[in-house]
Amino acid sequence: MDRKLRDQLGASSERVPSLISEGFGQKTDRHFAAYIYNARGSSKETRTHLHVAKTRGHITTAERDSLQARYNEVEKMLTGLAKHLIRDDRRQRG
């Protein structure tokens, strides 16, 4: 895989758990939810990089499809968590 694509894929995939962790430290649920939505955006970016990797012949269609399906599930979970946080919106998180 070419270096630039590998670096972009690595960066976007690493941002997902990093944003979740950073968001967990926020004072309110709404602030946490904003980080969750950003993590979801990084997941979508990762899926785009996987598509490019497949187009350039670095991974197979089966590999891309499997990984994209996993990221799709992650995005669904993140959306559910963000909606829950916004609905509850505790002002002071423990």
Quickly describe the structure:
By secondary structure, the protein is an all-alpha fold.
Give an overview in words:
The protein is mainly α and 94 residues long. The protein has helices spanning 3-24, 29-55, 61-88. The protein is elongated. The model has no long low-confidence stretch (mean pLDDT 94).
Largest sheet, in brief, is:
none
Report low-confidence residues grouped into runs of 5 or more.
none
Distance between the amino and carboxyl termini: 43 Å
CATH homologous superfamily annotation: 23S rRNA-intervening sequence
Approximately how much beta-strand content do the residues carry?
A: under 5%
Structural class: mainly alpha
Q: Rg, please?
A: 15 Å
Number of domains: 1
Approximate shape: elongated
Q: What is the C-level CATH assignment? A: Mainly Alpha
Number of strands: 0
By DSSP (H or I, 4+ residues per run), the number of helices equals 3
**Overall pLDDT:** 94
Q: N-to-C SSE series?
A: HHH
List keywords for this structure.
94 residues; mainly alpha; de novo design (two linked rop proteins); 0% strand; elongated
Structural topology:
Elements: H1 3-24, H2 29-55, H3 61-88
